[in-house]
Amino acid sequence: MPSYQELLAQKNELDKRIEQARHAEAKEALATVKQLISTFGFTAQQVFPWKPEEKKRVEAKYYDPESGATWTGRGKPPKWIEGKNRDLYTIKQTDNPFPVE
Fold it and tell me: Which domain of life is it from (predicted)?
């Protein structure tokens, strides 16, 4: 029966051979992929489809019941709220995300 040290040496040798085989096969696979892409004219989107990240939307803080317009409170205020008391147009926020109606 082989000793522990001998087994470790065999394991290290096998790990090296495994890594070499993986490297060679990966190189071969990449060459095949590149050849297929050039043959068929695939784009990066076709090969690796992705969706651009959607922009985060800021919830509206103010609402005009006459026009139905809303405003987040960021940037220049719209005409319908300029010079008026903003408390009249504030959207009431509830702390409970699941209100019972």
Answer: Bacteria
